[in-house]
Amino acid sequence: MNVVALPEALKALEKAQDALATGRHDLQAGFTLGAINRSYYCMFYCMSGLLYLHDIHTKSHQGIRAKFSERGNIHSPHTAISRRAAGRTIGPGRIQY
């Protein structure tokens, strides 16, 4: 884990929390598509933060998917995310609701 990248990872997680809160609000207000969009970005920011901890920097959605695919499993102290699961989760047209 790259401790130097911790502030960047925390910033990404703050964005994820904001996206999740907005998504909940949208869902409660009946804006289903807005909630789906915010949920997608919540996952995007979480995955981005995890990559920062491994000193991997990407700026695009495609870049995140590519990094998860080439690295196989990304391990953090609390979880392991497989490339197959990451691709299913954040791949284009694959959000399930």
Provide a concise account of the structure shown.
By secondary structure, the chain is mainly α.
Descriptive notes:
By secondary structure, the chain is mainly alpha-helical. The mean pLDDT is about 80. It has helices at about 5-30, 30-55, 60-70, 85-90, and strands at about 75, 80. Helix 1 (about 5-30) runs antiparallel to helix 2 and helix 3 (about 60-70) packs antiparallel against helix 4 (about 85-90). The radius of gyration is 14 Å and the shape is elongated. The chain starts with 5 loop residues before the first helix and ends in a 7-residue tail after the last helix. Strands 1-2 form a two-stranded antiparallel ribbon.
Give me some keywords for this one.
97 residues; mainly alpha; two-stranded antiparallel ribbon; 4 helices; 66% helix; elongated
Radius of gyration over C-alpha positions, nearest whole angstrom: 14 Å
Strand-pairing-aware structural class: mainly alpha
Tally of contiguous helical segments = 4
Say how many strands there are: 2
Rounded average pLDDT:
78
Q: In percent, how helical is the residue content? A: 55-70%
- Order of strands across the widest beta sheet? 1-2
What is this structure's SSE topology?
Blueprint (H helix, E strand, L loop, with lengths): L5 H23 L3 H22 L7 H11 L2 E2 L4 E2 L1 H8 L7
Antiparallel strand pairs: 1-2
Helix pairs in contact: 1-2, 3-4
